[in-house]
Amino acid sequence: MLPVLAFIYLAAFIMSTSAQSTPHILVYTATKGYRHESIPAAIDVLGQQADRWNVSFTFTEDPSMFTTDTLSQFDGVMFALNSGEVLDDDGQAALQTFFQSGGVYTGVHSGSACLYNDTNYAQAVGALFDYHPELQSATFERLNDTHPATKNLPDRFTWEEEVYNFRSDPRSNDAVILLTVDENSYQHGGSSTGDYPDQGTPHPIAWYIESPKSALPLQADAPRAGRSFYTSLGHLNTTWQNDTFIDHLMGGLTWALEGRSTRAYGVGLVGNSSAEEDGKSTPSGTTSASVSESSGAAATSGAAGQSRVGSSNMGLTAAAVAGAIGAGIALVL
Ligand SMILES: *[C@@H]1O[C@H](CO)[C@@H](O)[C@H](O)[C@H]1NC(C)=O
Ligand SMILES: *[C@@H]1O[C@H](CO)[C@@H](O)[C@H](O)[C@H]1NC(C)=O
Ligand SMILES: *[C@@H]1O[C@H](CO)[C@@H](O)[C@H](O)[C@H]1NC(C)=O
Ligand SMILES: *[C@@H]1O[C@H](CO)[C@@H](O)[C@H](O)[C@H]1NC(C)=O
Ligand SMILES: *[C@@H]1O[C@H](CO)[C@@H](O)[C@H](O)[C@H]1NC(C)=O
Ligand SMILES: *[C@@H]1O[C@H](CO)[C@@H](O)[C@H](O)[C@H]1NC(C)=O
């Protein structure tokens, strides 16, 4: 009896350790217009949260990372606080190939206010930002108490936020709405920037898409297209510093990854396969990291150890960024 049990435990241990490596997420905060003050807070907080949520983040504003080759190292991309045309046509095409290879999408706040001309991107995010009334206190309501992005949220919560309105109904892109807003809880204002389809009711605030649409077919041998999660919350520094928000965002990201469409889960064409990681000669032990892009992003860091920043990877790891901030080194983003 005992040896059998021991064997089962050993087998389970080997299976769980060999099939699962740490999902690797590219966080993209590039802007081509409005720039949120909360970008440094977002990077700082995500960097601190990575270990707790068993993911690793690389932070970048470098559009040249959006090639099929570079993206193939990642299990997911997170578009956070962007604006405007942050990728060219080649970058947009590589991103689409990534999604149709199983790479997952997460969008935060104005992650829906970029790449307006890219229909595929619109389908991945679900709906694009149209306008918002003034920043003010509003009451948000939970529509789903089991989804990982909302199960730990209160049924109703009130905070300062820009209540986003969208250029279409994300439900038309197969989104399931997770959060809405109490329409009587804030002063409406602002007006639509065009003659767009209705965003539908209840007013979409955060949602998920199990199987995002795309004009590009699934790549050969891809298990499935990557899942998508989007939240329009996240305007203020204080929001990023709120554990309820982080639980919402990281719950959504984790849910998208748990669709098991990537190499971190032992399947698929993209993502972190630790075995490959070990065999590859990526620059390791880098003790200083710096990025300097056309977009103007720059950072220096004295973080040792895990920093994996080199010529082939112009991003910043969470450790590097957290290190830079911890060491009080100016982080200009
Ligand atoms: C890949 O997964 C391994 C095993 O979990 C982890 O040690 C490593 O840091 C991950 N690499 C990246 C780039 O996320
Ligand atoms: C948000 O944080 C940034 C630095 O991280 C700071 O420059 C900015 O003033 C803060 N904004 C507010 C409204 O506190
Ligand atoms: C992260 O991994 C550890 C060890 O496997 C586990 O105990 C913990 O619950 C995981 N955390 C999350 C948020 O999944
Ligand atoms: C987006 O498409 C519109 C209409 O075709 C065009 O006028 C505009 O210049 C495009 N914007 C960008 C940034 O490509
Ligand atoms: C809540 O989310 C779960 C997925 O986590 C889904 O199965 C369920 O249908 C959703 N419920 C509603 C009311 O949308
Ligand atoms: C975070 O937001 C929740 C929901 O509004 C609120 O209950 C909580 O007090 C906030 N936490 C902090 C530290 O502000």
TrEMBL record:
Residues 272-294 are annotated as: Disordered. Residues 1-19 form the signal peptide. The keyword Protease does not apply. InterPro entries: Class_I_gatase-like, ThuA-like. Residues 284-294 have a biased composition (Low complexity). The keyword Signal applies. Keywords: Signal. Residues 25-256 form the ThuA-like domain. Pfam families: ThuA (PF06283). This is Trehalose utilization-domain-containing protein.
